[in-house]
Amino acid sequence: MNEEIIEEIESKEEIKTVNTEDKAMTTWLIFLISGKKYAVRSSDVVEIISDLSIYHIPFMPKYIEGLLNCRGEPFTVVNPNSIFEETSDAAPPEKSLFMIFKRQDDQLSLHISDILLFTKIEDTELKLIPDATEESFFLGTVNYDGEEIPVLNPNAFEVLIRKDCGNI
User: Helices in 24-135 by DSSP H: which ranges?
Assistant: First the structure.
């Protein structure tokens, strides 16, 4: 009789182990750039700041709006509209909201319109572009609430700046 009870308890424990197995999740930041939704891993973002002045730099590519001063540190401000839109002179987003990326060797910010939400999404919902490289602006899409949202590659902005401006 005791053996039957032990077997029953062990079988229930195995079922619980299977049921409590966690699915791999990643926290994503979903935001707007001129009305279009995009996503980045929240681990790629240091902070989001607003209402800072941009100091324009002459003779730079149009997608570089200039520099912003955040606590005494300069950050390059990239206008993604100039990169994603067909016209190279696309206007920057209407709000002064800047997403600062976590970088080891550069200080880079992206001019965005608005923050929608932070959310955890199963890793299986990320659909990677098979031939994406470090120069690709999009890594793939993530499915959130039935909508496919493009996932930005923060490294691509730095690669573009280094290509156009050199290793300054």
Answer: 80-84
Q: Strand locations in the chain, DSSP E?
A: 25-33, 36-41, 45-50, 54-55, 64-70, 73-78, 97-101, 108-112, 114-122, 126-128, 138-144, 147-152
Instruction: Give CA–CA dist 91/151, Å, rounded.
Output: 22
Listing DSSP states for 79-109 in one string gives -HHHHHSSSTTPPPPSS-EEEEE--SS--EE
Q: Which residue has the tokens 């062990």?
A: 10
pLDDT over threshold 70, residue 17: no
Using one digit for the tens of pLDDT, what is the confidence trace for 62-89? 999 999 998 888 999 999 988 888 665 6
* Euclidean distance between CA atoms 76 and 60, whole angstroms: 11
Report the amino acid identity of residue 37: K
Q: Which residues, 6+ apart, have CB-to-CB distance to 120 below 8 Å?
A: 25, 26, 27, 28
Q: What is the pTM of this model?
A: 0.79
Tell me how far apart the alpha carbons of residues 24 and 123 are, in angstroms, rounded to a whole number.
6
Distance, CA of 113 to chain centre: 14
63 compared with 104, residue with greater pLDDT: 63
Residue 70: the pLDDT is: 86
For Cα atoms 9, 15, 17, give the angle at the middle one, nearest 5 degrees: 105
